TrEMBL record:
<feature type="binding site">
    <location>
        <position position="245"/>
    </location>
    <ligand>
        <name>glyoxylate</name>
    </ligand>
</feature>
<comment type="similarity">
    <text>Belongs to the FMN-dependent alpha-hydroxy acid dehydrogenase family.</text>
</comment>
<protein>
    <submittedName>
        <fullName>4-hydroxymandelate oxidase</fullName>
    </submittedName>
</protein>
<feature type="binding site">
    <location>
        <position position="221"/>
    </location>
    <ligand>
        <name>FMN</name>
    </ligand>
</feature>
<feature type="binding site">
    <location>
        <position position="105"/>
    </location>
    <ligand>
        <name>FMN</name>
    </ligand>
</feature>
<dbReference type="InterPro" id="IPR013785">
    <property type="entry name" value="Aldolase_TIM"/>
</dbReference>
<dbReference type="GO" id="GO:0016614">
    <property type="term" value="F:oxidoreductase activity, acting on CH-OH group of donors"/>
</dbReference>
<feature type="binding site">
    <location>
        <position position="128"/>
    </location>
    <ligand>
        <name>glyoxylate</name>
    </ligand>
</feature>
<feature type="binding site">
    <location>
        <position position="126"/>
    </location>
    <ligand>
        <name>FMN</name>
    </ligand>
</feature>
<feature type="domain" description="FMN hydroxy acid dehydrogenase">
    <location>
        <begin position="1"/>
        <end position="350"/>
    </location>
</feature>
<keyword id="KW-0288">FMN</keyword>
<feature type="binding site">
    <location>
        <begin position="76"/>
        <end position="78"/>
    </location>
    <ligand>
        <name>FMN</name>
    </ligand>
</feature>
<feature type="binding site">
    <location>
        <position position="154"/>
    </location>
    <ligand>
        <name>FMN</name>
    </ligand>
</feature>
<feature type="active site" description="Proton acceptor">
    <location>
        <position position="245"/>
    </location>
</feature>
<keyword id="KW-0560">Oxidoreductase</keyword>
<feature type="binding site">
    <location>
        <begin position="299"/>
        <end position="300"/>
    </location>
    <ligand>
        <name>FMN</name>
    </ligand>
</feature>
<dbReference type="InterPro" id="IPR012133">
    <property type="entry name" value="Alpha-hydoxy_acid_DH_FMN"/>
</dbReference>
Length: 352
């Protein structure tokens, strides 16, 4: 982990309410998957090229029409207001100032329109499909009207994972923040939080439906298998995110770092493949890019930055990751992410 990230993590731990810290940190079950995510990127070794002119390294990345300063983007995460009074508005400002995209969660704690107004650059909207599907469709339409560039449909959450250390799925978030983007669409008289829970009956046709409703590309998040990625692409997905949801859903799921190559082999020639989970340095990202990822989402470190230093620290953390990536790309003999030869990365020999 980069020193700046380790430092922000400690500062966030002191700045956050203890229940908020535990909520951000938690994984599901025994936290096996949550615990393995970072180390899994270190299960690869690099075979650098030499005698290449790497005096200029260009990190600019294009993903579904978004022009980005680097391949780092902010993963969708709930309730940024636990970390900072401006919540997601501060996050998008900080990320935008670093030239990075933010994926804004359905469970954002500030109104979508306010978040959109605060965003200096592109942002995407993460959709959970709720039991009340009209609620999700209204949200997707609002996101499209507010300027979202894509919908990220999270599919690893038919039910919210059980996180033992937070004793349940909800912490002390008041209803007006929990439902800030949802309340106005609930049918009067509906039992608020029930209608706004995830629908466990989703099938691939939901991909086409959301694309039609929002008029935006749909990226499916939470895929760990090539065959499943292919099923999503055949149903109309414009991209996929290889993710274990930060180890917060199915515990003992394969780490994203180990799942990525299979997904790239299945769909990488058709759609962009993004990845997240445990990315804490430029070298972690280099491995992901060499394995065929187009972009890398960063989760918890952004919340640490937000809690420790607001929008400015969010900019700083994303710029530090980009600087580290620029450095290691040059050492590996590549002038851009696209210039990475897949043979640069190999699984580490296991002698244990
Ligand atoms: C998440 N994640 C998540 N994903 C999603 O699709 N919708 C959401 O609302 C949330 N909420 C959320 C809250 C918190 C506190 C965390 C830590 C994570 C998962 C997130 O998008 C991403 O997959 C992981 O966080 C990436 O792993 P790292 O970088 O946190 O290790």
């Amino acid at each position: 982990m980069l020193a700046l990230l380790a430092d922000l993590r400690e500062r966030a731990r002191s700045a956050l309410r203890p229940d908020a810290w535990e909520y951000y940190e938690a994984g599901a079950g025994d936290e096996v998957t949550a615990g393995e995510a970072e180390a899994a990127w270190r299960d690869f070794r690099l075979r650098p090229r030499v005698l290449r002119d790497v005096s200029r390294v260009d990190l600019r990345t294009r993903a579904l029409g978004a022009d980005l300063a680097s391949p780092f983007a902010v993963a969708p995460m709930a309730f940024h207001a636990l970390a900072h009074p401006d919540g997601e508005c501060a996050t998008v400002r900080g990320a935008g100032d670093a030239g990075c995209l933010t994926v804004v969660s359905t469970r954002a704690s500030r109104p979508l329109e306010d978040v959109a107004a605060a965003a200096p650059g592109p942002w995407w909207f993460q959709a959970y499909v709720m039991r009340d599907r009209g609620l999700t469709e209204a949200l997707v339409q609002r996101a499209a009207a507010a300027g979202a560039g894509a919908v990220v449909l999270t599919v690893d959450t038919p039910h919210v994972g059980r996180k033992q250390r937070v004793g349940g799925v909800r912490i002390g978030i008041p209803d007006d923040e929990y439902l800030v983007n949802l309340a106005r669409h609930l049918v009067p008289g509906a039992v608020g939080r029930e209608a706004a829970e995830q629908d466990p009956s989703l099938t691939p046709d939901v991909i086409g439906r959301l694309a039609e409703v929002g008029g935006l590309p749909v990226v499916v998040k939470g895929v760990l298998r090539g065959d499943e990625a292919l099923r999503c692409v055949q149903a109309g997905a414009a991209g996929v995110v290889v993710s274990t949801h930060g180890g917060r859903q199915l515990d003992r799921a394969l780490p994203s770092a180990h799942a990525l190559a299979d997904v790239v082999a299945a769909v990488g020639d058709r759609v962009p493949v993004l990845v997240d989970g445990g990315v804490r340095s430029g070298t972690d990202a280099l491995v992901a890019l060499a394995l065929g990822a187009t972009a890398v989402l960063v989760g918890r470190p952004v919340l640490w930055a937000l809690a420790a230093g607001g929008a400015v620290a969010v900019t700083e953390v994303l710029e530090e990751l980009a600087a580290d990536l620029r450095h290691v790309l040059a050492l590996a003999g590549a002038t851009s992410p696209a210039d990475l030869d897949p043979a640069v990365v190999v699984p580490r020999r296991v002698d244990r």
